[in-house]
Amino acid sequence: MRVAIAGAGAVGRSIAGELLENGHEVLLIDKTPGAISVEQVPQAEWLLADACEITSLDEAALQRCNVVIAATGDDKVNLVVSLLAKTEYAVPRVVARVNHPKNEWLFNESWGIDVAVSTPRLMSALVEEAVSVGDLVRLLRFSQGDANLVELTLPPESALSGTRVGDVQWPEDTALVTIIRGSRVLTPGPEDSLEPGDELLFVAAQSREEQLEELLSVRREPEGESR
Predict the structure, then answer these.
(1) What is the pLDDT of residues 159-187, one digit of tens each?
(2) At the topology level of CATH, where does 132-216 sit?
(3) Which CATH number fits domain 2-118: 1.10.760.10, 3.40.50.720, 3.30.70.20, 3.30.70.120?
(4) Which of 69, 88, 122, 141 has the most CB atoms at less than 10 Å from its CB?
């Protein structure tokens, strides 16, 4: 897979290093000469250019890339790079970094963005995830399709504790993708049961999140029993 990263700062270089270790081709683009530190990521290709300019992106052969990552520290630049990558070069996957939470609403498919990553939001979500049981925590937003990666730790009092995955009538537009049980990561099958303390990861439409949380968190009382 070929990946172009706009922004060769600490974030861009770190992403590049991870991708290179996984066997991908990486091109780092930055317009600041001081950011071109070939010795720090020697396996990557480097281009001193302004990623907001069509001529620069032509030189980068962006049409050959499977993924473009807009990782600069400037939200305006990340939006422009994303839009150009999607509309001018038809890049299949565009990922953009959100630096300021107040700008997060802009980072969607209208700007060509498939996945927006907000570091402040992600950090707060991880804090919530670590201390919350029974509450739905949004970890990541996928711009296309209005879907989110969400997590819920199944509480002991959940009505679904001990229920097989295949027996659960999940809300529409939701998919259980992973069960984390202690140190194990499970790919859920119909015969797997849901156990108290399981961390459940879903991809779900935002409109279904409340319904999903209610399904997992509330133990229903028998009919005829008053509260």
Answers:
(1) 898 999 999 999 999 999 999 888 888 88
(2) Alpha-Beta Plaits (3.30.70)
(3) 3.40.50.720
(4) 69
